[in-house]
């Protein structure tokens, strides 16, 4: 008997939700023709080879090529070693700004990280990428003192 009630309720819910789904598919939300658009000069930054502890900061310049102000929400990095900073104020149409990405170069090895950018642009999610390789600091060698075998010791 209990199962009969569960199946009846489940059937009613499915029946009521079906027309709503059909309506959404038949009447999609129209795209805003004036929406902001974000255009990056580059989406990949290649550090090449960088020395351990070196400057891991790079910039991704972008322009709002749309007709309304562009608003960026918090970018998300692929790990804690990559920290993005972004403009908090809306970017007006035709204006440019930068997203700075700082990579912690303390660990030796390859760099292949991403930062996902969310905004109110037509393409509301974009991914920026950093790559390269961190190499160990060169070891400093202290030159050895040359002994002058012909020198005379000084007595005091």
User: Per the principal axes of the C-alpha atoms, what is the gross shape?
Assistant: rod-shaped
Output the helix-strand order: HEEEEEEEE
Main sheet: strand order: 1-3-6-5
Helix count from the secondary structure assignment: 1
Largest sheet: 4 strands, antiparallel
- CATH fold group of the domain at 43-135: Immunoglobulin-like
Would you tell me the overall average pLDDT?
83
- Level-1 CATH class name of the domain at 43-135: Mainly Beta
Can you give a write-up of this model?
This protein is an alpha+beta fold and 156 residues long. Helix content is 16%, strand content 35%. The chain has one helix at 2-26; strands at residues 38-40, 44-51, 57-64, 76-77, 82-85, 96-103, 109-118, 125-135. The protein has a 4-stranded antiparallel beta sheet, with no helix packed on it. Strands 2-8-7-4 form a 4-stranded mixed beta sheet, with no helix packed on it. Strand 7 (109-118) and strand 8 (125-135) form a beta hairpin. The protein is rod-shaped, with a radius of gyration of 30 Å. Residues 20-24 have low confidence and may be disordered.
Considering the chains and any ligands shown, give keywords for the structure:
156 residues; alpha+beta; Immunoglobulin-like; 4-stranded antiparallel beta sheet; 1 helix; 8 strands; rod-shaped
